[in-house]
Amino acid sequence: MIARFEVRRRDYLAPDGSANRPLPAFATDAKLLVGLYRAMVLLRHFDRKAVALQRTGRLGTYAVSLGQEAVSVGMASAMQEEDVLVPSYRDNGALIWRGVKLEEILLFWGGDERGNDFSGPVHDFPFCVPVGSQAPHAAGVAYALKLRKEPRVAVCMFGDGATSKGDVYEAMNFAGAHKLPIVFVAVNNQWAISVPLRLQTGAETLAQKAIAAGFTGEQVDGNDVVALRAAAAEAIAAARGGKGPRFIEAVTYRLGDHTTSDDASRYRSAEEVQAHWKQEPIARLRSYLVRQKMWSKADEEQLAAECHERIEAAVERYLATPPRRPETMFDHLYADLPEAYAVQRRELSGEHDD
Amino acid sequence: MTEMTLVEAINLALGRAMEDDPAVVVLGEDIGVDGGVFRATVGLQKRFGSERVLDTPLAELLIGGLCVGMAAQGLKPVGEIQFMGFIYPCLDQLVNHASRMRNRTRGRLTCPMVLRTPHGAGIRAPEHHSESTEAMLAHIPGLRVVMPSSPERAYGLLLAAVRDPDPVVFLEPTRLYRAAKGEVEDNGEALPLDRAFVLREGRDVTLISWGAVLKETMAAADALSAEGIAAEVIDLATLKPYDENTVLSSVAKTGRCVIVHEAARTGGFGAEIAATIAERGLSSLLAPVTRVSGYDTVIPMARLEQHYMPSVERITTATRKVCQFS
């Protein structure tokens, strides 16, 4: 025996909202805990509205976060503003937490690149559609941060399917070799469209993939936002402190379809989904908050009304955003548009050279 | 002015770029201690340290992706892919990210990076080391594709590529690394991108080429000159976006055009130039535009590669035919 490894699993809140063990110190801060809850509820309301918009032809294909709200919110809540989020396409919740406007997210899913021009934080990466291809970016970001000796951290999020790609391993391998300030987060929602985890990998956990890259991987109950935030805070602090990368496997479940173009009932049973509804993160935290007298029915009603108002206002701004003129597709092709393409731009705008 | 080889000019430009701008970072396989398999980065790690001259793991996708991440964070990465045959794993990064980061974020994030790689056959290298798939790269919106053909242009164009605010793929003609020699002054002056260079003026026919095969193209022009055919020779230098105006005004003058490239014929960049001339220069044509190219085959290994590449003879034969067309 020349090496031995272990993979830790972290959870605090049981599915019924009772505490498995003493919660971390931050959980005594009612404002913080309620803030996490509010963010998850906002995301769920937002998802519902986005799907309704898509079904009525006012939004393009949309990827819902239903059931995995805790991951996005838990991770983002442990980041500093100056840290760099490198998200996948399903990390709306993290972006919203970090200040991206709801109407910007709608614009992106509504087919308008201006949605990726976040008003803040301006250094965060846009939604990444090719699965896992953002992981090397995060490694590049982390390298730049380390080179400039900035106490900032890159947080890279991707799904369980992405862990099958070389991109993710190449990024992790490099991050491990250079002890980069980066946290990799595998959002294990157990389905990569129709392919279940057991066909995705022969490994017992995704967290153990970090071992091959030379750093620690931890499995976290991804439906427990307290556990997520605790793991994220620890990993981010370690990365910020020069201790190198960490890997968090957040075990959750995609209660919805892959996207609005998908029908998950084709490949998984209603019983399975039903069973996972009993694990979901929002009801879980609500039960805990209610038990702790941090939350009431009146609070819930008020929150629902606030979410409704905020989302409706964003939808209104989104729908009122005038379309770009067609020739603006050339506007950010290069810093300065080469003459060869300026001709095409004029052609599209109806101006003619001849 | 010092006489040097093309690869020495590359090295000189990299050193100058790193000296001038502390954000410039050079990365790739074997580029540090080893100085690159062709020695393009020799001495740089000693001068600038292993953080700025970074030996990466053997992972081309990673090199492309790291460049994207570094560039979005304000560094100016210059990645090296050891041979063009190994560029394919990082095409995803070039097509989906590097070339469109500016566009998809409406300018919020940009990707000022350079990806250097040796290009082309003729050095008796192993399989997969002699690729010339520049047309594939030139097809990607948002990229620049640049290929020098002399030490002077290698120095000036590489400096321009590093200073460019957008991603540039810099293809270095492997066959010329040591074969091309010329005077280069380390004056920090860049040459313009997106511009073709007229290497030789002539009235009878326009020969357009880029990279290593310009050597044969120039030799062909010499041979034709002895026969009384005055060929104008254009080094396209930047393929994306390419300088249509220089091409069209030359063809307007000569009325005849032969395009010479090492890459396979079908869908090669020569087809793009021929199409431009057909669309915008047809009235000045006195003969069909003709291509002298590699064949639509896999680039053969060492024993046959010289038969694949355009030779002086193939170029002169094709050009005579074009000049005799009436």
Estimate the strand proportion of chain B.
15-25%
Oligomer type: heterodimer
Largest sheet of chain B: 7 strands, mixed
Helix content of chain A: 40-55%
Short summary:
Chain A is an alpha/beta fold and 354 residues long.
Main attributes of the structure:
heterodimer, A: 354 residues, alpha/beta, six-stranded parallel sheet, two-stranded antiparallel ribbon, 8 strands, B: 326 residues, seven-stranded mixed sheet, five-stranded mixed sheet, 12 helices, 14 strands, globular
Protein described:
The complex is a heterodimer of chains A (354) and B (326). Chain A has 354 residues and is of the alpha/beta class. Helices cover 43% and strands 10% of the residues of chain A. Chain A has a six-stranded parallel beta sheet, with helices on both faces. Chain A has a two-stranded antiparallel ribbon with strand order 5-6. In chain A, helix 1 packs across helix 2 and helix 1 runs antiparallel to helix 11. With 326 residues, chain B is α/β, with parallel strands linked by helices. Chain B is built from twelve helices and 14 strands. The mean pLDDT of chain B is 97. The interface between A and B is large, with 44 and 47 residues.
